[in-house]
Design goal:
There is one protein chain. The chain has helices spanning 4-17, 22-28, 53-63, 67-74, 94-99, and strands at residues 87-93, 115-119, 128-131, 146-150, 160-165, 170-178, 182-186, 193-197, 201-211. By secondary structure, it is an alpha+beta fold. The radius of gyration is 19 Å and the shape is globular.
């Protein structure tokens, strides 16, 4: 799931890669110079405003940037870094996460034999790929989908996350509240509220991306 910040960060990094300001990038693509202004990224009511797919398409064409390259920029590639080249991301299955054999008590990858997959660059040394071996929240997450999970990222309201309980069960949902006493998630499919008390929770990790 892409966030509002990631999309706008991708545009800013694309501009920086071509030594342009946000307004310079817009003009290069034949758009109004104010299209990507920071003042236009939030409405007067305080709601996030997203760039249109048309404006993104035009800047990609104007700069000769592929969608894969733009995704890498959204995920953290810096202006001087190479793009279009995958790197090796540690990969495990949902079953292994439930068994607790590949992650430590805080949900971070443990040393050992991991499978690896090619993936666009992500600036997170602790991130890993989780391959689903069964449907967990169709149509959002199905068998064969690969989720990129970051156990070290800060988690905010509205983030997609997975929670591993102390009994080994794994739950997926949108984070609504997190306190010292409990975590409250909203199930992706039913929208039902799930309350997990702190003494039942082993760890909570943010889902950065899903490849379907």
């Amino acid at each position: 799931m892409l966030t509002h910040k990631q999309v706008w960060d991708g545009i800013d990094r694309l501009a920086a890669r071509h030594k342009l300001s946000a307004s310079g990038l817009a003009k290069k693509a034949g758009l109004d110079p104010t299209t990507f202004n920071k003042s236009k990224r939030i409405t007067k009511q305080g709601k996030p405003r997203w760039p249109s797919t048309e404006s993104i398409s035009k800047v990609l064409e104007a700069t000769g940037t592929s969608m894969q390259e733009f995704v890498e920029l959204m995920m953290g590639a810096t202006p001087g870094s190479p793009v279009g080249r995958g790197f090796r991301l540690r990969c495990t299955s949902l079953s292994e996460v439930e068994k607790g054999t590949c992650l430590d008590a805080a949900g971070f990858p443990q040393p050992g034999a991991w499978e690896e997959i090619e993936y666009p660059a992500i600036e997170d040394e602790h991130a890993y790929a989780l391959e689903l071996d069964r449907d967990v929240a169709p149509p959002f997450y199905r068998t064969g989908d690969i989720l990129v999970v970051s156990p070290g990222s800060s988690i905010r309201r509205g983030d997609r996350a997975l929670a591993r309980l102390r009994d080994g069960r794994v739950t997926f949902g949108l984070v609504q509240r997190r306190t010292a006493q409990r975590v409250v998630l909203t199930e992706l499919v039913s929208g039902a509220e799930v309350v997990i008390e702190a003494d039942r929770l082993a760890w909570l990790a943010r889902i950065l991306w899903v490849s379907q």
